Amino acid sequence: MKRYHICLSGSGGQGLILAGVLLAHAAVSDGKCVTMTSSYGPEARGGASRSSLVISEKPIDYPLPCRLDVLLTMNQESCNRYASHLKEDGILIVDSTRVIHQPPIRHYSVPFTSMASQAGAVLAANVTALGTIIGLTGIVRPASLEIALRARIKEEMLPLNEKLLKLGLKEGRKLKSHSNEYYTY
């Protein structure tokens, strides 16, 4: 297995720290080694927020991601700031609802915030994005991400989050099977 260097970035309040915890939990459920660091601004909402993970089947000797294999940007600022950190063959996934000026590199453009809003929970766009990443890359098993959701999400919010996870997985699989059509400049 490849070692994955991942960054989930956006604004405070978009649930990117939780998304990192969910992904880390799923990777541990799959028996993988994981490191995770988080960064967020002093504001409760609106400041910069980021979860950085390294996921590997072998022990991890350096806990911080170097050049990124996967970068999720949920707002324009994070796209501008972190796109240059991608490996040459890295995967950039942008929330096209909030990232208007997409970089002139190959990327997937998905309206995560709009998708979650239409499903009834704009604050769960992070789960839709996670599902898309897993459907596209297979970093962890979808069943492991479902286990993580059940362990970390409040019971009353679980059905909606499970729905959005499935929506994201479907989107990720569609992108993977039609990458020439959806992986754009």
Written overview of the protein:
The protein has 185 residues and is an alpha/beta fold. Helix 1 (16-29) packs across helix 5, helix 3 packs across helix 4 (125-137) and helix 4 (125-137) packs parallel to helix 6 (158-177). The chain has seven helices and seven strands, in the order βαβββαββαααααβ. The longest helix is centred in the C-terminal third of the chain and has 20 residues, at 158-177. The mean pLDDT is 91. It has helices at 16-29, 76-82, 112-119, 125-137, 142-152, 158-177, 179-182; strands at residues 4-11, 33-40, 48-56, 68-73, 86-95, 107-110, 183-184. It has one domain: Pyruvate-ferredoxin Oxidoreductase, domain 3. The protein is globular and about 40 Å long. It has a seven-stranded mixed β-sheet with strand order 2-3-1-4-5-6-7, with helices on both faces.
- Give the CATH topology: Pyruvate-ferredoxin Oxidoreductase, domain 3
Strands, total number: 7
CATH class: Alpha Beta
Mean pLDDT: 91
Report strand order across the widest sheet.
Answer: 2-3-1-4-5-6-7
Radius of gyration: 15 Å
DSSP strand content: 25-35%
Number of domains: 1
What's the CATH superfamily, by name?
Pyruvate-ferredoxin oxidoreductase, PFOR, domain III
Shape: globular
How far apart are the termini?
28 Å
